[in-house]
Specification:
Length: 324
């Protein structure tokens, strides 16, 4: 079947670089004379029939913008039989031969379900700051989020060292410690807690105590959200119960997700967006397009969220050695 019309959506949490990916998909599709429809607010836009045609102009000047021009959502309606049936009607009504979906694990789950139930041809792109999708070394948005968090950590370091104060800084990542680990290494943190490794509060206290005795001027502990020991406030309180040390907590939150995408994210998004359309032309569907060892790879939707991308535990060790 010749593909003539495609739909594109962004779903789940927005991630910097999503716009660069939209632009790459649209421009590559137009290059091959395909018509492109932007679906607004993720799968919800398919349920509601909220689509607009995208031309060259609609994606001009967006490569440098954070968020997503299409809007995004976590649609509950699409998860219902009725909602998905309505979405299929919209796909048929607009004559969409294939879809490109950009998002995280929830987006890939949605794609898998839609494909399985109705045979819709879908190709996925990894767009999430969490970097927790199997089938790509990096997801679109991760690099920017790490850089955003890093800027904050550097600034907090000024206060931490001026006042010789202990800081607990919480970063995003949902159930994954990729952001935490990268920020800790690049920010020269003294300790990092990630969901993938068991957190021992006594060990943390021991390390911080040694640092203080050694005369370290500042101590920064990066806490990944989703750590089984609790959030940054809980962990700080547990430490304080034993270690008589003044501390402050900073939860970086949504500043990590916003702002202009880094060069790495724009490059990755442009490459993957282009590859998504090339995949469609080759008749490759049911997969997420990713980059592994600098090569484009296709991973079946189901594997992207059932297989676990491994954290590099070596980095964990390096952080400890470098902060001795
Ligand atoms: O998945 C991206 C992410 O920013 C996570 O790091 C975080 O846990 C979550 O989204 C926050 O979700 P929401 O935007 O619904 O508050």
């Amino acid at each position: 079947m010749v593909i003539k019309r495609i739909g594109i959506l962004t779903s789940g949490g927005d991630a910097p670089g999503m716009n660069a990916a939209i632009r790459a998909v649209v421009r590559t599709a137009l290059h091959y004379r395909l018509k492109v429809f932007g679906i607004r607010y993720g799968y919800q836009g398919l349920v509601d029939g909220d689509l607009i045609e995208l031309d060259r102009g609609t994606v001009a000047n967006i490569i440098q913008r954070g968020g997503t021009i299409l809007g995004t959502a976590r649609s509950q309606a699409f998860e219902t039989r009725k909602g998905m049936a309505r979405a299929k009607k919209i796909v048929d009504c607009f004559g969409l031969d294939a879809l490109v979906v950009i998002g995280g694990d929830g987006t890939m789950r949605g794609a898998q379900a839609f494909m399985k139930r109705y045979g819709v041809k879908i190709i996925g792109l990894p767009g999430t700051i969490d970097n927790d999708l199997y089938g790509t070394d990096f997801t679109i948005g991760f690099d920017t989020a790490v850089n955003n968090a890093l800027d904050a950590v550097d600034q907090i370091r000024d206060t931490a060292s001026s006042l010789e104060r202990l800081f607990f800084i919480e970063v995003m990542g949902r159930k994954a410690g990729f952001i935490g680990l990268a920020v800790a290494l690049a920010g020269g943190a003294e300790e990092v807690l990630i969901p993938e490794t068991k957190t021992s509060i006594p060990e943390l206290i021991k390390k911080l105590n040694e640092n203080i005795k050694k005369g370290k001027k500042s101590n920064i502990v990066i806490v990944s959200e989703g750590d089984e020991a609790g959030n940054a406030f809980t962990i700080a309180r547990k430490v304080r119960q034993v270690l008589n040390e003044d501390y402050r907590v900073a939860v970086l939150g949504y500043i990590q997700r916003g702002g202009k995408p880094s060069a790495n994210d724009r490059i990755l998004a442009s490459k993957l967006g282009n590859a998504a359309v090339e995949a469609i032309r080759k008749g490759i569907f049911g997969c997420m397009v990713g980059e592994v060892d600098r090569k484009i790879v296709y991973t079946p939707f189901k594997q992207t969220y059932t297989k676990r991308k491994k954290i590099n535990k070596g980095i964990y060790r390096i952080i400890r050695i470098l902060s001795e």
